[in-house]
Amino acid sequence: MLEADLYAPVKAHLEAQGYAIRGEVGHCDMVGWDAGQETLVVVELKRSFGLAVLYQALRRMAAADLVYVGVGVPEGAKARRNWDAQLPEATRLCRMLGLGLLSIRHNAVVVHADPGPFAPRKFPARRGRLLSEFNRRSGDHNIGGTTRRPRMTAYREDALRCARLLAEAGGPRRPAQLRDAAGVPKAAAMLRRNVYGWFENPSRGLYTLSPAGAAALALHADVIAAQAISPAGSSAPPQRKAQALRARPPAPRNRPGSPPSAPAS
After folding, report:
1. What are phi and psi of 32, to 5 degrees?
2. What's the pLDDT band for 265 if we cut at 50, 70, 90?
């Protein structure tokens, strides 16, 4: 499929929406004008979706009311599977950038997104999990790109707290004792699962430190020191900073697209 093969079906689609179409106007692949609504639309055509066509489309936003990216749906089973897997994120990206997205296959045009302001959907549960993980850590113990030791997480820090107390106790302890002394509410489950192999269970309801646990305390001595300064759960949640949002003009009424639909089979 050539880029020229995409032109005719997209032109017919736009003309059906009331636009007069001209090809290769300035640096634009396709320009449409609706005199009644005074709406200028630009479509950049590419055989495949990627940064090149996004860069082109973003440059057109300074002059046009509506800007679409039009890409050809590849032939072949493997290529189609790759496109179908890419499509949700490609659609989301175009919406975030204020662009529209069209796909063309067998002279049929499918509208996946129309241009317009983007307001991401918020998930309070995800925010809560992220903030909980942040606050439960005693400090910044991970260096991006390093593989010298495992990534430090809040769960691993809680396991280190339990391991440190077992080392200091010098003998078996019950989960409830570790829970209260370490400030780890899920200590019992952590000891039972023993994800890292740091604990041993010599008798029912009692736990001791394993050789692997002792080695972990030595490896993460800096984390143990930080925990002494910043006990579990002591970090206060960061204040939300107010951000000024730049107002965007309302999108024109007459859009050449339609509600997002599934790709043509």
Report:
1. -125, 145
2. very low
Range 192-202 burial, b when 16+ CB lie within 10 A, else e: eebebebbbee
State what percent of residues in the chain have pLDDT above 90. 62
User: 3-class DSSP state for residue 124?
Assistant: helix
Tell me how far apart the alpha carbons of residues 234 and 72 are, in angstroms, rounded to a whole number: 54
CATH number at residue 64: 3.40.50
Write out pLDDT tens, residues 8-24.
999 999 999 999 999 99
Which residue from 227, 152, 167, 158 is spatially nearest to 186, judged by alpha carbons?
158
Angle between helices 154-169 and 221-229 (to 10 degrees): 90
Q: Rounded mean pLDDT of 94-111?
A: 93
CA–CA gap between residue 18 and residue 12 (Å, rounded): 10
Q: What is the pLDDT of residue 230?
A: 72
Cα–Cα dist 154/133, whole Å: 6
Query: 134 is in which domain, residue-wise?
Result: 124-229
